[in-house]
């Protein structure tokens, strides 16, 4: 028999799905577990929101009840923890394929950061393995270690040696799409505002501590010996206790690094996400026997207090408030408030203490009179904030807040003295800033400012005519966005909602790559001409990082707030979720902001009452007034 046939036969015998071993021989040598002291749990704070509480309200109609009992660190550990399904929610991004490149270490650390962002901040955040692999200066033949990689991302190593001036962090996938070949570190030009940063990671030596970490905080990265029989592992539907273990005979080709996303004491195994694609193992996962192939001999690593970038959060906030990466746990709110006597102030709510405080001043006194409240966004340009507001002169004024100098400066003014609606602003998937606003002639118009330009261009023709009001309702959605587009130029659809004058609100949208706007559904009844809709995309009802998100909208109508929801991904139409009445005489005049941030699926809203009081609300299945923001204004 010819050699080729022999090889073919042996390949077939090993299974059609057999994958050639792709290693990531770790170097330097993995740290022995015994060299790390047990965790002092009292010194580690708990997560602000437990996974059991996350998204427990995603369906208002049939509110999901949290089942896991995650409370005290002294509670006995449950027999199974699986972040692919905690209380019915998946926190783990899709298994990726490292290809023929020894980059498992980059994949494991990337997967760790992604899942921690989802756990701590609710949002999906696919990161770029290439950004770590190439940023660290590795070539495909080079191996790496979990600890060195985490040190690099955290900025604890000499990153200027890698040509990165600040703490490196890790960029989003589209900023630097992964290819299983050696390439120099090539990334998007606005990488600095598209990088998730990490705080200190935790080396965990003891198996009991590792399980507790999995239960309390999230996944952990592990190193193990890669024996040849690992590549052939498949689930066995007839055996619920089937796990991977070394067969005692097959040879080893070095070490491998992967992410442990849970444990199962009934099987006696870690639940592991590998980086050999979804076609490998159990949809890319494997049950890996405890204490096998050195997996419990070496230190594992967990992570807390990740800091997602403004690019990641931008779909989920509109209007005069946004969530930023500032604060101890990176969950502060930034709020802009205008007052005819005092000008425009930037105030902030500490994400841990919930206390508001003044940060800085955009304008003072009556130097510049604006109508209503400004809109604020976080941008990929050095993470700077940008703000826009409509002026008494019927223009839009733009400001920017520099994160390095901590000051606001006045930028461009535009609008041809024709603007009289409230503006919606987003940073679009091609990094340009887009404003949609109504003109005095009843047209709804799009303005665009290219990245690194100060000029705003009015796009012709207008989006629509016969519009009576516009608002902070422009969303760069993830609908139509191809997350794994290798060209890195895929763009999601833009959506906006305006008031039409016939008692209805009107949805408009356009493909990211086209300038032609389309009319979507009209909805609502008895909506006044001057009602100002505010809209975001939410984080609910998603299966993984590629899932399209639904929309949430709030608008003040005759003194009450109407809260609407639209889940196009489920084939639904706009539907009203709740009508929120105010306890005040005259009620609520306007909604100024809607945010879904890091607080376990809660939404946050800023309103202004008819008598001019600014109020802060939270939605936790239903809306509740939390406080009136007075004194700071
Ligand atoms: C996910 O977990 C819930 C309980 O929290 C359970 O009812 C459900 O069957 C699980 N789903 C899958 C696919 O295992
Ligand atoms: C960091 O790396 C740069 C470039 O390789 C080098 O010039 C510098 O001396 C290094 N700094 C430290 C503290 O090692
Ligand atoms: C505005 O509405 C009126 C009355 O329905 C209609 O005649 C007109 O064509 C509309 N204008 C635009 C620009 O759509
Ligand atoms: C709001 O008030 C106007 C004027 O009274 C009325 O026509 C409209 O139906 C009201 N809208 C709602 C939703 O009640």
TrEMBL record:
Family the UniProt entry places it in: Belongs to the peptidase C1 family.
GO molecular function, one term: cysteine-type peptidase activity
Signal peptide: 1-18
Official protein name in the record: Peptidase C1A papain C-terminal domain-containing protein
Domain Peptidase C1A papain C-terminal: 77-303
Entry-linked InterPro entries: Papain-like_cys_pep_sf, Peptidase_C1A, Peptidase_C1A_C
Keyword Signal: yes
Organismal lineage: Eukaryota, Fungi, Dikarya, Ascomycota, Pezizomycotina
Annotated source species: Apiosordaria backusii
Keyword terms of this UniProt record: Signal
One family name in Pfam for this protein: Peptidase_C1
Origin superkingdom: Eukaryota
GO annotation terms (biological process): proteolysis
CDD domains: Peptidase_C1
Cell wall biogenesis/degradation is among the record's keywords: no
């Amino acid at each position: 028999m010819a050699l080729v046939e022999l090889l073919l036969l042996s390949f077939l015998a090993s299974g059609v799905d057999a994958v050639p071993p792709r290693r990531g021989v770790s170097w330097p040598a993995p740290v022995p577990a015994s060299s790390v002291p047990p965790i002092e749990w009292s010194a580690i704070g708990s997560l602000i929101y437990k996974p059991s509480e996350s998204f427990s309200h995603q369906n208002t109609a049939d509110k999901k009840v949290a089942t896991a009992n995650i409370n005290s660190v002294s509670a006995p550990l449950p027999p199974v923890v699986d972040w692919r399904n905690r209380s019915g929610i998946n926190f783990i991004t899709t298994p990726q394929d490292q290809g023929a490149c020894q980059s498992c270490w980059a994949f494991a650390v990337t997967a760790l950061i992604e899942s921690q962002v989802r756990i701590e901040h609710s949002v999906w955040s696919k990161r770029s393995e290439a950004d770590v692999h190439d940023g660290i200066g590795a070539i495909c033949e080079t191996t790496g270690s979990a600890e060195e990689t985490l040190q690099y991302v955290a900025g604890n190593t000499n990153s200027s040696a890698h040509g990165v001036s600040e703490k490196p962090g890790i960029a989003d996938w589209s900023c630097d799409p992964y290819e299983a070949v050696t390439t120099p570190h090539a990334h998007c030009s606005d990488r600095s505002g598209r990088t998730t940063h990490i705080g200190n990671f935790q080396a965990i030596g003891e198996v009991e501590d590792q399980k507790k970490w999995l239960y309390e905080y999230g996944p952990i990265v592990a190193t193990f010996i890669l024996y040849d029989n690992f590549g052939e592992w498949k689930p066995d539907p007839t055996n619920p206790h089937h796990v991977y273990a070394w067969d005692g005979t097959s040879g080893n080709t070095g070490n491998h690094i992967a992410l442990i996303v849970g444990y199962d004491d009934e099987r006696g195994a870690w639940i592991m996400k590998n980086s050999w694609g979804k076609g490998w193992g159990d949809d890319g996962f494997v049950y890996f026997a405890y204490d096998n192939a050195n997996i419990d001999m070496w230190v594992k690593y967990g992570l807390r207090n990740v800091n997602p970038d403004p690019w990641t959060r931008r779909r989920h906030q509109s209007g005069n408030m946004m969530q930023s990466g500032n604060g101890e746990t990176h969950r502060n709110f930034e709020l802009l408030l205008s007052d005819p006597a005092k000008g425009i102030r930037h105030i902030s709510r500490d994400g841990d203490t919930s206390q508001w405080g003044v940060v800085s001043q955009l304008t003072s006194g009556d130097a510049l009179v604006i109508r209503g409240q400004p809109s604020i966004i976080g941008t990929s340009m050095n993470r700077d904030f940008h703000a826009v507001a409509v002026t008494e002169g019927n223009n839009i004024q733009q400001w920017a807040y520099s994160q390095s100098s901590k000051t606001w400066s006045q930028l461009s003014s535009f609008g041809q003295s024709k603007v009289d609606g409230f503006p919606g602003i987003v940073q679009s998937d091609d990094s340009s800033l887009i404003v949609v606003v109504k003109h005095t002639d009843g047209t709804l118009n799009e303005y665009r400012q290219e990245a690194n330009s100060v000029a705003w261009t009015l796009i012709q023709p207008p989006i629509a005519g016969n519009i009576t009001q516009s608002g902070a309702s422009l969303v760069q959605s993830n609908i139509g966005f191809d997350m794994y587009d290798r060209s890195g130029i895929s763009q999601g659809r833009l959506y906006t909602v305006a008031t039409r004058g016939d008692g209805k609100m009107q949805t408009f949208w356009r493909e990211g790559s086209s300038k032609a706007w389309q009319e979507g559904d009209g909805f609502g009844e008895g909506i006044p001409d001057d009602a100002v809709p505010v809209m975001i995309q939410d984080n609910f009802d998603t299966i993984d990082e590629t899932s399209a998100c639904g929309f949430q909208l709030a608008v003040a109508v005759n003194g009450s707030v109407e809260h609407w929801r639209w889940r196009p991904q489920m084939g639904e139409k706009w539907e009203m979720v709740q009508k929120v009445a105010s306890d005040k005489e005259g009620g609520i005049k306007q909604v100024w902001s809607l945010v879904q941030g890091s607080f376990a699926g809660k939404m946050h809203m800023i309103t202004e009452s008819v008598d001019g009081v600014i109020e802060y609300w939270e939605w936790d299945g239903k809306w509740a007034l939390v406080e009136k923001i007075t004194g700071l204004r």
